[in-house]
TrEMBL record:
Organism: Streptosporangium album
PANTHER family for this protein: D-ALANYL-D-ALANINE CARBOXYPEPTIDASE, D-ALANYL-D-ALANINE-CARBOXYPEPTIDASE/ENDOPEPTIDASE AMPH
Every Beta-lactamase-related domain range: 20-321
InterPro entries in alphabetical order: AmpC-like (IPR050491), Beta-lactam-related (IPR001466), Beta-lactam/transpept-like (IPR012338), DUF7586 (IPR056008)
Protein name per UniProt: CubicO group peptidase (Beta-lactamase class C family)
Ranges for domain DUF7586: 347-431
Amino acid sequence: MSPVLESTARALLRRIAVEQAGSRLPSLAAAVIRDGRLVWFGARGRVEGAVPEQSTQYRIGSITKSMVATVVMRLRDEGRVDLLDPLGKHVPGTPVGEVTVAQLLSHTAGLTAEPPGQWWERTPGMPAEELIALLGPQSARHRPGRRFHYSNLGFALLGELVARHRGMSWARAVQAEVLEPLGMRDTTSRPRAPHARGYAVHPWADVLLPEPEHDAVAMAPAGQLWSTPADLARWAAFLAGDTAGVLDPATLAEMREPATVDDGDAWTGGFGLGLQLARAGGRRLAGHGGSMPGFLATVWADPSDRVGVLYMTNATSGASRTLPTELLAILDEHEPRLPAEWESADVDPGLLELTGPWYWGPSAYALRLLAGRDLSLAPIGGGGRASLFVAQADGTWLGQEGYYAGETLRLVRRADGSLSHLDLNTFVFTRTPYDPAAEIPGGVDGGGWRG
């Protein structure tokens, strides 16, 4: 993939220039990723007197959580952890041991947002044993599973789960299993030069106040890491589907599935397993934001389009939350992606007889044969349940999406071998509406259709 066009680059640069000036940010770096590659980078402001580069470090805050979650999912795939396991099975002795791993990953465990003690983001941290000893009944604020409630404490506990299973710190596990395989060699637990200094910008004067930076120790899995635009671009590419063997693509897709919504009926934002989700501009995005004293960052990826976006700044507050999606909108406006060329596919010719219209009662559906032996079933004219079905070794098909996800589609043939109907988890699909020759549950009125 070549870099963006000059006109696109100019429009992207102007947007971050407006943001840096209008929001009074000491420095701002942003990047766009397409098809696994960084195709545009821009920066404004100064870090130690120089314009930020792709190698300039910023603290990424809660984006750390998504990397910790990736190691947890690796443990799941290895069979060491089940998402339905109670925390107490892996980190015994906590007063919140009944919450599940999945609830912690999706912020539905009902735990308090912050740990006991002083504001952890601005004070030196404590070991995990001390943190756990401070927990009590007040650490649970909602019934587990009842609602979304963001919890930094929950990810501190997940970091301890990782450490106990791997026999090393959560940070070393993330480095070995996530950062190094993805080539993210400039993502570290503590800052290294060149790095941005974190600042608070005075609300009524153009002056800065340096923010403190500490090792959060037990709370570090919630927001400790520092990274660079180049490294975070690699993370965006990972989220968009270039997993580089770090995770099975199906596991990453599972992390991107909505587990909870955090803005009610609007459903513009939610959470999967360790990943924030957003719907904006016709896209469904997965990634995470990060906020620590002196720093803000966000990374989003759209796997359906293999595109990603990120920004990093060294200010406690002020950056627009819509900046990343506005950058994607500029890309769409200036360089809309061309649809893939249609071409014929290798299919099982023996399944061509399945294609065409089918009826569930009076409702018309179309069955298409995809590459190999896979099938697509969708209502004709919209307004119904659709799904992709993947062929199985036993001659059935397994639903992948929506209502039929995980359900089995099978062919039912007559004694002479001719095709009678489709059985989709007791739903009968026939070639004509309510075919009287098929096994329709409840039977078909003998009088037939009438006026």
